[in-house]
Design the sequence.
């Protein structure tokens, strides 16, 4: 099984923080991720997500883009400034197909992106691409 190397070694394997202001999206994502073997925590905005990362760094973050308080891009910039470019692995979710919006997320430090709505197969493929699941 290919796993994303963790230089710090401080975060637990197979933990995912789901960050979305929609409780329905969080519930759907949690169900999928738990089926894929992840231990899941949730945050409703970028500020809550930063605090969750400071408390215990997850292996991966599934990150909504548009949220109140602190949006996905703002969270990413703060996360990378505080903790560096590699960990946690961030997969950004967006409903916007425009490439410049996707690039903005990648430039802010996301490793991958996924279009909403996603299903188990799509999410499994993305997590395999970033080395968090077997290909
Ligand atoms: Mg949203």
Sequence:
């Amino acid at each position: 099984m290919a796993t994303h190397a963790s230089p710090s070694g401080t975060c637990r394997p197979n933990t995912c923080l789901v960050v979305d202001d929609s409780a329905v999206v969080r519930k759907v994502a949690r169900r999928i991720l738990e089926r894929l073997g992840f231990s899941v925590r949730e945050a409703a905005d970028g500020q809550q997500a930063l605090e969750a990362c400071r408390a215990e760094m997850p292996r991966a973050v599934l990150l909504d883009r548009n949220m109140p308080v602190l949006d996905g891009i703002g969270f990413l910039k703060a996360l990378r400034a505080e903790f560096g470019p590699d960990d946690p692995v961030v997969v950004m979710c967006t409903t916007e197909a425009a490439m410049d919006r996707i690039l903005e997320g990648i430039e802010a430090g996301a490793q991958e992106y996924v279009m909403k709505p996603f299903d188990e197969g799509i999410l499994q493929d993305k997590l395999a691409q970033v080395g968090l699941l077997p290909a």
Confidence is low (pLDDT under 50) at residues 1-11. The pocket of magnesium ion is lined by residues 20-22, 64, 66-67 (CB under 6 Å). The longest strand covers residues 89-94. Residues 32 and 120 are 6 Å apart (CA to CA).
